[in-house]
């Protein structure tokens, strides 16, 4: 559930190192994948097993697959235009969930995917060029909205919902819906993406966002028909929570990427039970990604409830600071929301695959 670390390591990243930050929050993705693994019916399970495992990868299930699109964030483009997978020596922990994919051929797959999806849009959230594929992980719909719809600020043709729709199409053997030129070369790539993006779709700060004026008051970008880049919160990545851990900068997005530590990085019985009681999705499969995004947007209303934003004072690295009515209460509420969202993510990933392969 990442998109996080950009602001977390802000000082070092901005001053010295234009390399993209990588895999935070892989535990959440593994939990979602692991729940889905347990809820797959035999036909879907066989397909998943067959697609994810070939001459290079063995024993890959949805749990192991789910962090893959964050591993792609270790790909950088050099000045000569060539792409390379680079392990960040300061953050070797980013590689932990990527080890199932460190064979020569799997690394080449990661680099090839990043290269094919690098320049299809421009994405420079912190002044450095990031590959377009980074945008596939999120939407930034204003929390004043109660539904997700194309055309709202914070949506675009290469956002999370569009990326999920593209991956589903590939798994179904259908053409990727236009207009955006996603490049997903085969069913393995599509499934690696889907296992991750369904997790992202259930992280409230990957879907709902606050838009602020210069003083930190909420503004409505859909009424103004514009977004001020100077005050953008980047899905909470530009909002610093200095209360959470004294002397350490944690941004609000990252705080939501972290999952309760007792969950570890696999499904617990509690979460599998919760997943089994998630109501089935209504309507045609094609309508599910947007409907799930709407559901998460409503959860994001709660994630932002009671928060007050102020411009950060130098030398604070982020643009904004956040204060809470009661920080302990907020963290407790967040803990409960996260458990529910992880269960929903796992249930819906399984539901989707069970529907594609009945
Ligand atoms: Zn992600």
UniProtKB/TrEMBL annotation:
The protein's name in its UniProt record: S1/P1 nuclease
Signal peptide boundaries: 1-23
Keywords: Disulfide bond, Endonuclease, Glycoprotein, Hydrolase, Metal-binding, Nuclease, Signal
UniProt-listed CDD domains: S1-P1_nuclease
InterPro entries associated with the record: PLipase_C/P1_nuclease_dom_sf, S1/P1nuclease
Organism: Bradyrhizobium jicamae
PANTHER family: ENDONUCLEASE 1, ENDONUCLEASE 4
């Amino acid at each position: 559930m990442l998109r996080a670390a950009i602001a977390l390591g802000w000082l070092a990243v901005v001053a010295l190192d234009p390399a993209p930050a990588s895999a935070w929050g892989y535990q959440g993705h593994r939990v979602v994948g692991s729940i889905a693994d347990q809820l797959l019916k035999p036909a879907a399970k066989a397909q998943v097993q067959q697609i994810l495992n070939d001459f290079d990868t063995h024993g890959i299930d949805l749990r192991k697959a789910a962090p893959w699109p964050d591993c792609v964030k270790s790909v950088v483009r050099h000045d000569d235009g060539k792409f390379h997978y680079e392990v960040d020596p300061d953050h070797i922990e980013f590689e932990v969930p990527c080890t199932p994919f460190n064979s020569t051929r799997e690394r080449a797959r990661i680099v090839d995917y990043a290269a094919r999806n690098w320049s299809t849009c421009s994405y420079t959230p912190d002044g450095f060029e990031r590959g377009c594929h980074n945008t596939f992980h999120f939407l930034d719909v204003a929390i004043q909205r109660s539904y997700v719809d194309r055309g709202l600020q914070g949506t675009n043709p290469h956002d999370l919902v569009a990326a999920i729709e593209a991956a589903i199409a590939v798994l179904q053997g259908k053409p990727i819906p236009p207009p955006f030129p996603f490049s997903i070369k085969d069913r393995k790539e599509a499934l690696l993406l889907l296992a991750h993006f369904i997790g992202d779709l259930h992280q409230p700060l990957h879907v709902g966002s606050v838009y602020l004026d210069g003083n930190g008051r909420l503004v409505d970008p859909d009424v103004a028909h514009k977004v001020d880049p100077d005050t953008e919160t980047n899905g909470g990545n530009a909002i610093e929570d200095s209360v959470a851990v004294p002397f350490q900068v944690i941004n609000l997005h990252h705080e939501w990427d972290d999952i309760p530590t007792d969950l570890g990085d696999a499904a617990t019985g509690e979460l599998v039970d919760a997943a089994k009681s998630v109501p089935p999705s209504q309507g045609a499969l094609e309508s599910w990604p947007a409907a799930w995004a709407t559901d998460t947007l409503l959860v994001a209303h709660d994630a932002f409830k009671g928060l007050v934003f102020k411009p950060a004072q130098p030398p604070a690295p982020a643009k904004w600071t956040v204060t809470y009515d009661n920080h302990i209460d907020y963290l407790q509420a967040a803990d409960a929301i996260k458990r529910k969202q992880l269960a929903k993510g796992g249930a819906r990933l399984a539901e989707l695959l069970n529907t594609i392969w009945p």
